[in-house]
Design goal:
single chain, about 220 residues, alpha/beta, Rossmann fold, 2 domains, seven-stranded parallel β-sheet, about 50% helix, globular
Length: about 220
């Protein structure tokens, strides 16, 4: 690279940074706004599952969705969490009786590296979170979701941050819908706090009125269980 090329690159860098900053502000403003282009077909949907009660709550939410409006459905769970995907598979299999083979073809099941194991220190979880984020980025690029549903498991944060990064760079727009777990009565989960403070979620729902009062940008959805 010659001196002229280096000078040109140095001059272009502030412009690129400025454009990226403008795009970042636009994404923050645009998030949460109603879509101006309703989809005639189904919306490609990514559903994040978590161990324990997270999956039970999320599957409750999934059962209320209009299946033709949210299809295909991609269920994602942590690599060490097989039971969550089994529950999703059982549910999708139960739909075959009414929808035939079409339903199971519209359901996909995937796994992702876990950001943080139960009991793992926050210091060591930095490396595992970075690895999970790289894996999540690959999954989001592969799935190209239009809607992401999540409700608090640590698995959801790398996926949501990856989708947000793709928004900022203008590569893909995914609407992120976060529903805080009903177990969170007085304060948000770690995933919820991160998504709320960083304004990553397009719509943020809580199931207790006192949480909505404490976090005014959240929407009170009532009990979903």
């Amino acid at each position: 690279m010659g001196l002229d090329d280096l000078e040109a690159a140095c001059c272009a860098l502030p412009v690129l940074v400025s454009l990226l900053a403008i795009r970042f502000v636009y994404v923050l403003w645009r998030s949460g706004q109603p879509s101006s282009k309703p989809s005639a077909a189904g919306l490609r949907c990514l559903i994040v599952l978590g161990s324990g009660g997270h999956t039970a709550e999320m599957m409750n939410i999934v059962t209320t969705l209009q299946k033709d409006s949210f299809t295909p459905r991609y269920y994602v769970a942590a690599l060490t969490d097989n039971m969550s995907l089994q529950k999703a598979q059982v549910y999708e299999q139960s739909l075959i009786q009414s929808d035939g083979e079409k339903t199971i073809k519209n359901a996909h099941f995937m796994q992702i590296y876990r950001s943080r194991e139960v009991g793992q220190s926050y210091i060591t979880s930095i490396a595992t979170t970075l690895l999970a984020t790289l894996h999540a980025m690959w999954l989001v690029i592969r799935i190209r979701p239009q809607v992401i549903f999540c409700n608090g498991p640590g698995t959801c944060f790398p996926l949501c941050i990856s989708a947000f990064i793709l928004k900022v760079f203008g590569l893909r727009w995914s609407s992120i819908l976060y529903i805080e777990s009903i177990a969170r009565v007085k304060k948000l989960s770690l995933s919820g706090i991160l998504l709320y403070k960083l304004r990553i979620a397009d719509q943020f729902f809580v199931q207790w009125p006192q949480l909505q009062q404490k976090y005014p940008r959240a929407q009170y959805a009532g009990r979903l269980m």
